[in-house]
Amino acid sequence: MIASIIQLLLSLLVIVSLWKIFEKFGEAGWASIIPIYNLYVLIRIVGWKPIKILLFLIPLYNIYLAYVLYRDLAAKYGKDSVGFVLGILFLPFIFLPILAFESEPVA
User: Fold this and answer.
1) Distance between CA 60 and CA 17 in Å, rounded?
2) Where are the domains of the chain?
3) What DSSP letter does each residue of 74-101 carry, written as one string?
4) Which residue in 72, 62, 67, 73 sits closest to 96, CA to CA?
5) What does the pLDDT look like over 28-86, one tens digit per residue?
């Protein structure tokens, strides 16, 4: 029961963080709660062609693409170190709020 509540709170923190990141780039914040559309918006934010969303359907390659996507997103904030990007991948409830609430985009 307690683990479920903690998981819900961490998920809400990630959603709120993505909401704030989307708004910083002039996108609709509500897009962070729509599963595939939020990926599309992230792809637009980092400047990729929208067709790349189909590449996320390829198993294992999608893990690499997620790394590159988050690297490009972090680069918009000037935080594109390998450690920070891996932090976004494995601990998004810690690293996405850093982007959302402590940083401003530099690019």
Assistant:
1) 26
2) 2-102
3) HHTTT---HHHHHHHHH-HHHHHHIIII
4) 73
5) 999 999 999 999 999 999 999 999 999 999 999 999 999 999 999 999 999 989 999 99
